[in-house]
Amino acid sequence: MALSREQVAMRVAQELQDGYYVNLGIGIPTLVANYVPAGIEVMLQSENGLLGMGPYPTEAELDADMINAGKETVTAIKGAAIFSSAESFAMIRGGHVDLTVLGAFEVDQNGNIASWMIPGKLVKGMGGAMDLVAGAQNIVVTMTHADKYGNSKLLSDCTLPLTGVGCVKKIVTDLAVLEVREGAFHLLERAPGISVEEIQQKTAGKLVITGDIPEMVFN
Amino acid sequence: MAGFNKVVHSYEDAMAGLQDGMTVIAGGFGLCGIPEGLIARIKEMKTKDLTVVSNNCGVDGFGLGILLEDRQIKKMVASYVGENALFEKQLLNGELEVELTPQGTLAEKMRAGGAGIPAFFTATGYGTPVAEGKETREIDGRHYVLEPAITGDFAIVRAWKADRYGNLVFRHTSMNFNPMAATAGKITVAEVEEIVEPGELDPSQIHTPGIYVQRVIKGNFEKRIERRMVRQG
After folding, report:
1. Known catalytic residue at A47
2. What is the DSSP letter of B58?
3. Residue A89 and residue B108: Cβ atoms within 8 Å?
């Protein structure tokens, strides 16, 4: 069966490593913070200027001056640092953030990503997404494998205006985990109960399948 | 007002000199860390044809959003503007021009503007609509876009504490764009929660040195929360 949003987040959380600085985008990526594996420590970066983002505040801790990049009230953990937007994007653009997780409309086999603009619909803006994809060492995209009409979001070439070029390394969808390299999607894992044939059928770009593809394992 | 005493006692004085057609850089991220009283004063002044540079444009009825009500903004330079219906309407009517700018590029444009750097190369936006019409260059095998700096006739910022020299300290994540905005205004006005005596701010803890700030005014802030999230505690 296709993964739920929470399961996608759980699978992405397996990409976290001890000592990682991580930026989580809005939506499914935000949920990843709930599934940090036991025994490892990661530091969450929020691009409005917070390194060491904590959970939502209690009623007593609520503070209008303490928000995350989604403009939600948050807390800072012990050992956090707060800084300006320029400093924040120096970290991001300078490649100091170890892992960025963000959503997308489309990804193509060359690692291009489209996530901010659908022509004909009102464009709200790219926020920090273009800086994040240009700067991160390691980008994981979360999205559904196909849209609600069954059209693949993993394409040979993105059709929508791009957010960044050649930057996506890994994709976790509701059906599969894929690596993007050498101009192709490489199938690494499939969701429990999802066949390789279904993934193939819902992947419009070049898909490389090597050997038996294991099912994802959730602890 | 003499020497280094930058404190003004009225919003009239704080925004004196703002004229139609000027560029105003505003600090803040969403509704966090915005100079509420200075924005309200611009609305009162009915100044028109402004170019406003800020990460966002407030919401309907609050923050920079109130400057849309009387069509005071001609052009908005921002990274994300989805929070207000009036903005959408004016954009679709062609009453408002928007230059969408990646958030980090926007911060760096302000920083560069204040630091005397006319433009800079960044990988952000290469190969996207943001790079259209801009000079690009390959440096060590990677592609970059040339982005011009931004300066403003005015910069309006919100700080936590200030002294009469204009030294500023920001509180928590309300810092955001405020330090860069403060450097990039010909006239920078800081609206602050508290004005303290010189010497009370630790010199090594000052975020914005007073040299960047021309006027300081003590404000009263509503500090509206845009997305109130709490956990059971």
Report:
1. yes
2. -
3. yes
